[in-house]
Amino acid sequence: MNKDLSPEKEKSKSLDGSDQVAVRKDKLDRMRESGIDPFRANWDQTHVSMDAVSLLPEDEEVGPEVSVAGRIVAFRLMGKASFLKILDRAGKIQSYVRKDEIGEDEYALFKKLDLGDFIGIRGPLFRTKTGEVTIRAKEYRLVSKALRPLPEKWHGLTDNEQIYRQRYLDLVVNDDSRQRFRARSQIIREIREFFWSRDFLEVETPMLQSVSGGAAARPFRTHFNALDCDFSMRIALELHLKRLLVGGFDRVFEVGRVFRNEGLSRRHNPEFTMLEAYQAYSDYRGMMELTQSLIQQVAQNALGTLTLDRTEGAPIELSGKWREAKYKDLIIEAVGRDDWFELPKEAKLEKAKELKIEVDPALEDFEVTNDVFEKVIEHTLIQPTFVTHIPRELCPLAKITETDSSTIDVFELCINGQEIAPAYSEQNDPAVQREAFMKQVGEETQELDDDFLTALEHGMPPAGGMGMGIDRLVIFLTNAANIRDTILFPTLRPS
């Protein structure tokens, strides 16, 4: 529909933003002076847009009466009759307003409405000559006056900074964003449904913690005035969830916010949503089946497909058996050296130069190798790939592989060129766990959670555990370009 404006609206269109606000505020004052309430308390809404549209079958021209409400996003004013479209939570619906239907005075007021105003409309459905389901208005009411104009319809909201700072406008004018966040909500709902169907207990663990554990990450710190001591925002869910395994809850999961005081990038936001799940009497192979089944069920139920289109390159195929590859094999293939893991660090740094990647020479030997993995290999793993048996130094919380003491029973699921979900055979030997923790504490990469070690000494069953970044999951399921496109209100520098 074309956005044709009345002479009054054409005049306001040429004004800058502050002038348009002044015009709208003047309209507001005149409404109040004439006894009109421009901010009503409610409207008797019987249907949302898509439900109303579905009431009129394709072979019928006239349907039942409905009452809808939403924001005006398009106008076509034509003397004695007008068309408009309103946007509600389900989508858009058209309405046809005639002067001889609602009365001359009401129609005069109607023509003074602005794009962005919220209105309620009541009337029967009919089908226009072009086949569009439309409401023939018998009654309308302004329910909330918009004092600021929306972004121009045809140019939309294209400045990324404004999109993230004023997400509410992005949701009004950008249908892709609106659909992506609806999909995100459905994805999280399907995640919960999956775990509930497998008899997992959903729990909540503390965001404020006296010790930051479960990951090697820098926390956000704060001072707790009532207790006069410092606390940290959690950097992982793991250690409290595993305490629940000790307590006898054999299957637990949590979807919660996690905070890491680190960098910002297309793939990183300091506040993000994490899923973690733990299942007693399972291991990393059990988590492999669980993770694949989870993603396939979520994609099928939330998106209706297991084949995901990408902006560039072949689609991602989630059906069938997913690839498995050992971490060491991928490294050896990428660097072209069978003896890579026997080489001294200096030789690895030289090889990294040959591969034209920058590696900090101050890194530990295993970190140099992992830098090669992240910069040379990870971005190539587009189709689902379980990267198994990573170096033991990278995670102190997993079981050491029986046949290779340099690795741990772990997989990192990579899809679309990034890690989506790591999973472990969880370490339940308190002595081995303490030794691993003490090594990391000595390297200042993790704090020692002595209470967790005490819990472990009371006995924890063998278990598999899995973590998944929800934001990264949404990135590849919805073909988003940036993690900020999947977070309603991403972290930004104050304007």
Description of the molecule:
- By secondary structure, the chain is of the alpha+beta class.
- The chain folds into 2 domains: 7-150, OB fold (Dihydrolipoamide Acetyltransferase, E2P) (Beta Barrel); 172-322 and 383-486, BirA Bifunctional Protein, domain 2 (2-Layer Sandwich), CATH 3.30.930.10.
- It has 16 helices and 19 strands.
- The protein has helices spanning 7-13, 17-33, 49-54, 99-102, 104-110, 160-165, 167-173, 175-197, 238-246, 284-303, 327-335, 345-354, 365-377, 430-442, 450-457, 470-478, and strands at residues 62-78, 81-88, 91-98, 118-127, 133-136, 139-144, 201-202, 208-209, 221-224, 229-233, 251-259, 271-280, 307-308, 316-317, 323-326, 385-388, 410-415, 418-425, 463-469.
- It has an 8-stranded mixed beta sheet, sandwiched between helices. It has a 5-stranded mixed barrel with strand order 1-2-3-5-4. It has a 3-stranded antiparallel beta sheet with strand order 8-10-9, with no helix packed on it.
- Helix 8 crosses helix 10 and helix 11 crosses helix 13 (365-377).
- The model is unreliable at 1-14 (pLDDT under 50).
